[in-house]
Design goal:
Elements lengths: L2 E5 L4 H12 L3 E6 L12 E5 L7 H8 L4 E6 L14 H27 L5 E5 L12 H23 L6 E4 L16 H16 L4 E2 L3 H14 L1 H15 L10 E6 L6 H12 L3 E6 L14 H9 L6 E4 L4 H8 L3 E5 L6 H10 L5 E5 L7 H14 L1
Parallel strand pairs: 1-2, 1-4, 2-3, 4-5, 5-6, 6-7, 8-9, 8-11, 9-10, 11-12
Helix pairs in contact: 1-5, 2-3, 3-4, 6-7
Bound molecules: cytidine-5'-triphosphate (CTP).
Cytidine-5'-triphosphate binds next to β8, α8, β11 and α12.
Length: 385
């Protein structure tokens, strides 16, 4: 059976495209950071977890080699109508990563298929915002402009290399039926657009701007005739429309530890924590004395090792208590290994954080290792010598 991948297919237009592909006899696999709601899931559709903030090319390499795979559609992305100063650096990084950098890296994995003579259908969500100036959505527009210019440029390379394949840039303005603007998934409202996208894919088109003749031809012409005037009126329009979503909060995560003899249990904890927040702050204890334990690696070195880990955004000296650290960092989630669940300390924290909107997340303790286990193993081997 012919197969298709839809990246970001659990919601909105991605989900609509999945349904359209299923109707055309494709077996679709959805990659998304959240699972699709079962009742909305068209058949035959499978789901695999994938967060584009942390794309791993290896996850997709076997798919790129599967000759039954005929189609890739990348729909994942997010945006926000807000002034630039309202964007936290972590949000800028995530938006550029999810909307632009990861999709390009993904397309690189499948590029040999695009270069080949066999038909390989490929599409990506751009946006009308990527084709003109978009004040109050500057970061989103920058990420989508990257996608639009990329598709336009690489399609020329494909043509020059004699490939029959092209990348379809789907660049809509606002549309109804997706959760993008805060509403709910309404597949019925998206069916027409999803059909248009699939038809354009199979026709080998390079650009689809839905509602072009009715609306966006005029919009683009106004922009091209006077980009500055267009930008000013666009800003005024967005101000007046009440669509601004200022101060939308990121999820700030915090955890603390000694991190002596850094091991995979530490790494698992940091990775899981980062997957559940947008910005991870890690407090490092000066020593293990508070647990009655000796530390072998100096404090500054432990700070450097933890700070060098890709899952950590900021490393700080820990406070005596995680509840004291909250006054400094105002985190939304506190992460810890399950070995602390039910301890006097964490019962106290649960009471302390109850009215502060802070969620305590316990992750499974990695049983195979700990700093104490490593310390004991070294001691035992020294005694034997
Ligand atoms: N952690 C974990 N799995 C492990 C070890 C630690 O999930 N195998 C978690 C702890 O629950 C804690 C964090 O890592 O939230 C930092 O703990 P730390 O005190 O540095 O780790 P340990 O290796 O447990 O240290 P020690 O053996 O010295 O107590």
């Amino acid at each position: 059976m012919k197969k298709a991948l839809v990246i970001g297919g659990s919601n909105g237009i991605g989900l609509g495209v999945c349904a359209a592909l299923c109707r055309r006899g494709f077996e679709v696999t959805i990659f998304d950071k959240e699972a699709p709601r079962q009742e909305l899931l068209p058949a035959p559709c499978a789901y695999e977890a994938c967060d584009l903030r942390f794309l791993s090319e290896e996850q997709f390499a076997p798919w790129a080699e599967d000759p039954a795979l005929e189609l890739l559609f990348i729909s994942a992305g997010f945006g926000r109508v807000a002034d630039f100063e309202d964007h936290h650096p972590a949000e800028i990084r995530a938006m550029m990563e999810v909307n632009a950098s990861a999709p390009l890296r993904l397309l690189r994995v499948f590029y040999p298929r695009l270069l080949g003579q066999e038909r390989f259908y490929c599409g990506i969500m751009g946006s009308i915002a990527g084709l003109l100036s978009s004040p109050m959505a500057a970061v989103y527009a920058a990420s989508k402009a990257a996608v639009c210019r990329f598709a336009e440029s690489v399609n020329i390379e494909l043509e020059e290399k004699g490939s029959p394949n092209r990348i379809l840039n789907v660049s809509p303005g606002s549309f109804r039926g997706s959760r993008f603007y805060g509403g709910e998934n309404e597949p019925a409202l998206l069916e027409g657009l999803a059909e248009q996208i699939t038809e354009s894919l199979f026709a080998g088109q390079t650009l689809l701007i839905p509602d072009y003749e009715k609306t966006y031809r005029g919009v683009l012409e106004r922009y091209q005739a006077d980009p500055h005037g267009f930008g000013l009126s666009s800003y005024a329009y967005k101000q007046a429309s009440g669509r601004a979503q200022p101060g939308k909060k990121l999820v700030i995560g915090y955890l603390s530890g000694t991190f002596d003899l850094f091991h995979v249990g530490h790494l698992n904890l940091l990775r899981r924590a980062r997957a559940q927040c947008d910005y991870l702050i890690v407090g490092v204890h000066r020593s293990g004395a508070w647990k009655g334990k000796e530390t072998f690696i100096p404090f500054e070195d432990r700070m450097a090792v933890v700070g060098g880990c890709r899952w950590v955004d900021k490393v700080v000296p820990s406070c005596a208590e995680d509840s004291d650290a909250w006054a400094l960092w105002h985190f939304d989630r506190l992460f810890v290994g399950s070995d602390y669940q039910g301890t006097e300390r964490f019962r106290r924290y649960e009471a302390f954080f109850r009215d502060k909107g802070v969620e305590i997340v316990y992750f499974p303790y990695t049983q195979s290792t700990s700093s104490t286990m490593i310390r004991n193993r070294i001691r035992n081997s020294q005694q034997k010598e």
